[in-house]
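Minutes, structural biology subgroup

Action item carried over from last meeting: produce the structure token record for Crossover junction endodeoxyribonuclease RuvC (Mycobacterium fragae). EB confirmed the sequence was re-checked against the source entry. Recorded below for completeness.
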Amino acid sequence: MRVMGVDPGLTRCGLSVVETGRGRQLTALDVDVVRTPADQSVPRRLLMISEHVDHWLDTHQPDVMAIERVFSQQNVSTVMGTAQAGGVIALAAAKRGIDVHFHTPSEVKAAVTGNGRAGKPQVTEMVTKILALQAKPTPPDAADALALAICHCWRAPMLARMAAAEAMAAEQRKRFAAKVKAAT
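Output recorded by EB:
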């Protein structure tokens, strides 16, 4: 499975592609940070992000995309920019039929470090070890994008089992309702 991890942001947007191997073995295929100038209009900056993401999707052809879920932050304008960037990115994936999954920062930190409150240095250190990278990914947005891809690779089997269980439960409810209706 090839996963594109995205740490959305209007100023800096982390992009990564990670591929799963046997077991929990992962390989980093690419990582980058898209930067947009703060003096540009928001629509222009979103267009720049969109163009980069389109290129990445065409080049790497991921099976799934993992995007950091916008979490409440103190600065409303930062949250808005992050949400707008995440929306543009999710739309690009949806247009290509690529499944999009959102993960909270604490889910990502817990998956990668075992601690949902880990700091950026600890996440970067673990990403470097997990992917056997020669150097730490910089800036932190690059490490965060890789961490998102790792998180999804490791959580995907559980998410698939949960979706199958939910589908089975829905089918059983449907059959039960049909039996009840037939009995009355």
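Discussion: The first helix runs from residue 42 to 60.
Next step: EB to file the record with the rest of the batch.
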